[in-house]
Amino acid sequence: MSKTVKNLIDKLNIQKTLSPDEYHTLVNEFDKDDLSYAKELAVGIRKSVYGTSVFIRGLIEITNYCKNGCLYCGINRANKNCSRYRLSKEEILSCCEYGYELGFRTFVMQGGEDNHFTDEVVCDIVSEIKSRYPDCAVTLSLGERSYESYKALYDSGADRYLLRHETADSEHYSKLHPSDLTLENRMECLYNLKRIGFQTGCGIMVGSPYQTSVHIAKDLKFIEEFDPQMCGIGPFLPHKDTVFADFDKGSFDLTLFLLSIIRIMKPRILLPSTTALGTLREGGREMGILHGANVIMPNLSPETAKDKYMLYDNKLRTGLESAKALESLKKQISSIGYNIVTDRGDYKRN
Ligand code: SAM
User: Which residue has a Cα nearest atom 4 of ligand 1?
Assistant: First the structure.
């Protein structure tokens, strides 16, 4: 174990802040023993705040139409092989009905940036979900919108918003996106969401093309300062119809290490163990939970939509990601010492 890395993990645990150089050392120099050390600390912290509860979110992939050209993403506008769909209000509501019976108390509506989903359309769906299920939270993940739009969504009852910042380095951002998308706007969106009152989530893909350890250090510093309520950290996985088809997948160990580091930095954060982590390696999502994550997002989308919402190749489809297999997911989670709860699973403010 590197003494420097261990000392930095201890320092982060006590002070909850490191310099970008120190974050860089962590990311650049950690080894297997450091990973175990960070894991033990993260697990202890997470148990002291959230016990052994694992919160589940019912993911509803409402559309794969997207006006954006994010170079890494399988549903980007340029992919002519992507068969497009969008769910109707009735289809979304029936996903919620099914999910509610299974015990879901958060519904996440995620999708590409689809002009069909105007404020009027989304607000109508959100307020209907909230009136049918007042004990549930609604999370949105619909990309970049104006302040006024976010405010309207919030006023219609949405509780949380996920918008990964993708990278905190603008040069790196420009290698992942076409020039009409800027880090400046992404960040402005994130600050607006927080200002409006959403429980807000940022995050990155680990191992995205051209990412370096300096970039990840910047991301950690941004997460520290932005102080989000949620953070989505998952490995980059290539999609065959994108320009990054031949790039390597993100590292499993680095993803786990970052989950632990973020838990140590932000004890109360809601930290998903992502589908991408489960896709990268069998049992990956359980490993994420064992490294400090406390949220899993099983897929409630209709079967036809699941096949078409392909952000990357071979998206996990083993059954355990499906809500139908919730019972077996529950067993699996309890076999590693945790338990899936029927709860909104809000951010604990104190
Ligand atoms: N359009 C919304 C947005 O931009 O935030 C939400 C949908 S977007 C598809 C959700 C997330 O998927 C992105 O933030 C990105 O990090 C992730 N993603 C896209 N392509 C990916 C890939 N090839 N590997 C791993 N994650 C990917």
Answer: 143
239 lines ligand 1 (CB under 6 A): yes
Q: Taking a C-beta distance cutoff of 8 angstroms, is the pair 188, 202 a contact?
A: no
> Apex CA 23: angle with CA 17 and CA 29, to 5°?
140
Homologous superfamily (CATH) for 3-341: Aldolase class I (3.20.20.70)
Q: How far is the CA of 73 from the centre of ligand 1 (A)?
A: 6
Q: How far apart are CA 157 and CA 97, in angstroms?
A: 18
**69 vs 156: CA distance, rounded Å:** 29
Residues found in the chain: 350
Q: Which atom of ligand 1 is nearest to the CA of 66?
A: 1
The 8-class DSSP code of residue 250 comes to: P
Averaged pLDDT, groups of 10, the chain, 350 residues long? 90 98 98 98 97 96 98 97 97 95 95 98 98 98 98 98 98 98 98 98 98 98 98 98 98 98 98 95 95 95 88 73 74 95 91
**Residue 307 pLDDT:** 85
β pairing state of 106-111 and 58-63: parallel
